[in-house]
Amino acid sequence: MRELMGIINLEHERDVLSELTYYRCGAAVPFAGRYRLIDFVMSNMMHAGIEDIALFVRRKYRSLMDHLGEGRPWDMHRKRGGLFILPPDWNDETDVSAGELRHIYNNLDFFERGAAKFIVHSGSQHISTVDLNEVYEYHLEQGADVTLVYTRVNAPREEHRSCARLEVDEDGMVTDIHYEHKHDAVYMEMFVMEKSRFLEMADHCIAHGGNNFFRDAIMQNRHKLNIAGYQYLGYHAVINSLESYYRTSMNLLNPKAYNSLFRKQAVHTKIKYEVPAKYLNSADVSNALVANGCQIDGEVKNSILFRGVQVKRGASIHNSIIMQKCVIGENVRLENVILDKDVIISRDHKLQGDFRKPFVIAKDISI
């Protein structure tokens, strides 16, 4: 949709996934056997027909840049517009902006060149299949200054504690914004706003020492703005800790959860051509996600295997996540474990974590 341009803002997302974010930002963390967390918001924007996307990054973004490339899997490889990965480039000595507002100030040319009149602003930690066209149409119908996307959570978990909550009246308008943990209307860190109003409010925040658009422009002015709340009813998960990452991943082994996330609309990712998984004579696999290129000659139960994993004879993997090109040696026992990519576990080792706190090994380690 030419009326919308996308902003994916990673400035405020900290590297909180333990060993999985030693060498990459959270948005680049592998997920569900073949994806990265960034793929979900990218795919949502692609399905909405958005032709211009700016990605605000600051730390550990090499892996993310390698994954996204020129944006071809999301139809962002364009002669005009497309995907813009915008790392810090702040050389203006007169610049008084701070925090995420500094990205806006130093990339005004992105907004000025784009023909779209509205922006959709999002992070990467909320996994969903939200229809952004519906959000945009709802925004226009409500005549709002800004529309915040939220979902209702029946049983708030620890990962929801840092999420803002919305009070929404029967007309769909937001009457309050707060952080009361027991409240069920969780803000999904996604909003739609007219571009000119967005830039005007960002400029005002910068002039008054602000550094966070949602807090300083929207939340602090909630009684002055006409704020609509769009309720999203589909699959939703927040991944902002190692525990939430592990629990969300394991939940996808439930066919109902998996279909809720992946059957509504396609989730696009970087294409890698590999042979199908190969199951040898001793393979025993049940309730598992197994990606292409794997070779299995052991037992895999209730686990997720990314591309190119080798499981040797006699090995046993239970309730674990094994990332790309790991090698699991003969007679190895793994339970409640997360292995980052290119880990090698030699024969006869046993590693065991807890389902509430899995044992994690960072990438490129041999044991």
TrEMBL record:
Keyword Nucleotidyltransferase recorded: yes
Residues in Nucleotidyl transferase domain copies: 17-156
TM ranges: none
GO biological processes: glycogen biosynthetic process
UniProt-listed Pfam families: Hexapep_GlmU (PF24894), NTP_transferase (PF00483)
E.C. code: 2.7.7.27
SUPFAM superfamilies: Nucleotide-diphospho-sugar transferases, Trimeric LpxA-like enzymes
Keyword set, alphabetical order: Glycogen biosynthesis, Nucleotidyltransferase, Transferase
Domain Glucose-1-phosphate adenylyltransferase/Bifunctional protein GlmU-like C-terminal hexapeptide, chain residue ranges per copy: 282-349
Enzyme type, top EC level: transferase
Highest taxon of source: Bacteria
Family label: Belongs to the bacterial/plant glucose-1-phosphate adenylyltransferase family.
PANTHER family the record matches: GLUCOSE-1-PHOSPHATE ADENYLYLTRANSFERASE-RELATED (PTHR43523), GLYCOGEN BIOSYNTHESIS PROTEIN GLGD (PTHR43523:SF6)
Name recorded for this polypeptide: Glucose-1-phosphate adenylyltransferase subunit GlgD
